[in-house]
Fold:
Amino acid sequence: MITNSWTDTNWKTRFFTIWSGQAISLFGSRLVQFALIWWLTQETGSATVLAIATLIGLLPQVIIGPFAGALVDRWKRRQVILVADTTIALATLLLAYLFSIDAVGVGTIYGLLLVRGIGESFHWPAMSAATSLMVPKEQLTRVQGVNQMLQGALSIFAAPLGALLLAVLPLQGILMIDAATAAFAILPLLLISIPEIAQRGEATASSAASTFWGDFRSGLRYVWSWPGLMMLIVMAMVINLLLTPAGSLLPILVFDYFGGDALQLGWIEAAFGFGMVVGGLVLGAWGGFKKRILTSMFGLIGLGIGFGLLGFIPANLFWLAILSAFFAAFMLPMVNGPIHAILQATVEPDMQGRVFTLISSLGGAMAPLGLVIAGPVADAIGVQSWYMIGGIACIVMAVVGYSIPALMKIEDNHRQKAEEVIEPVEEVGSEAVVP
Structure:
């Protein structure tokens, strides 16, 4: 159970104090990401270098994510978030110093991106799992709407502000901004408690390793025994495979198909950002349908329509492409927000780290695969065809999903076989969740 101090009316003040600090820190991280990518672009002019940088950021999530999830479920979530945020901030400070003495190379940037990727592999599942203990279940969809709105706002403002700051500050100055914003994330965690699940008793090194692998295997069994969750994971993998390359292909779509230039590309990217903001605001205010999965399937149909239209629109109707981009991005929070809320509300607290990281790892693994496939396909049959394929696939998945009971009842059947999958946890006192 969760103590009343987190379930009464003051949960908003306490949660959003922590959330606001994390949001400020995330904004600083986006500034640094933009600045480092631009530095690599200026220094090397190499697409291969940029691709390697992207992969280095993704690989920790894909490779160590499931193992990090097992550890997150054993450790205190607040401590995991604190250590991850502090480690990333210290690495950023070190890089700022190296820039100040002109001792930075491409390999140094790769090293920081790797540290940030590893830190994020622990931070994201810990924060997601902690959210389910801080926020009442009936409010989780609204909170996810706010999260989606934040992502959209960052897409709009972080890159332009990063470009402006690069014109007036040395790169180490932007790195120092990121380190300073990290303090906004760390300080609330030092002052505000987060409910924690009960931890297992003391163990020797050998038994701890054995228990870790047992936890890892139990996470896999838990997901495998839940058909609705397995279907969600497969859908997420397909969506990432088809739609992740859409961002990379967007410049080609604008330049080659619509005959636009950098200004038109900026308009359509801004439309994506504003669409996510508005969609997040609407989901945060509305909360979605009572049955959350219905909101996600509804959003998936809209997402498919928006992306599909980008491929079907005639080349002389660019203004309609802007509207389609806005509509697709507006629907994205409707897809993602309820799914995160479903997992936070239904997955047992001591399994959430493993489940979240497994989904993130499998979905993340599809991104580089999609990028590898999308380029040759777009070259062979036209870039707009990739948007058609992705849009139609989203609509088909949603329509088929409506007819699958295991998926539509995912919020009702989550406890099936749970007793067979989850190993007993020693309770601390009389509570299974402690502040």
Q: What stands out?
A: Residues 1-6, 200-208, 417-435 have pLDDT under 50 and may be disordered. The chain has 17 helices and two strands.
